[in-house]
User: Fold this.
Amino acid sequence: MPESKSPKIPSREFLRKFGLPSFLIPGIILAATLGFNWEKLAGQDPRTNPDIFGNDSKTAEIQDGDTIRLETGLPVRLIGMDAPDKGQPFFNEAWAFLGELIDDHKVRMEYDRVQNDNYGRLRGYAFIPCWEKFKDYCQNGEINLNIAMVRSGMARVKTTKLWQKPKYEAELKQAEEIAKTFRLGLWAE
Assistant:
């Protein structure tokens, strides 16, 4: 019978080699002792690690037109866009449209460099597989929910002044121009 392999506990010298502050080292050693698989984490980008963030998950709740809660319990703010808040015109329409888009599909998440906002939500782009009802929003076999919300006129483009340009900024701006041209949703007036 093969012997189960216990996690390797990193030594202080090993951790200091990576420039970690001394006050963090006991916590890291404790986490490794309790079974945290730090080797797995170190081998990949944390934003793609399903042990940390849900990358393929069902949506448990549509909180508003730009925020979803995944089945894992993680709240995610869809970035690059801003949908109306509760009490504002088009709130109900944006909330309902996002729910209709997602339906019962698994959501693939792509997280931004800045992981969370002032409300404790993760920030990212959400994708679902293409399906017949929304085939006009498909690109490369997927629907980018952030772009679909803007293109349908249910949200505006909103970019923050970060040091890094948002990944889908050009596509979001193009989607907003389409919504404005066809006077969709927020642009109907």
Notes: The helical segments are 12-17, 25-33, 38-42, 91-102, 145-151, 169-181. The chain has two domains: 12-43, 56-187. The chain is about 30% helix and 25% strand.
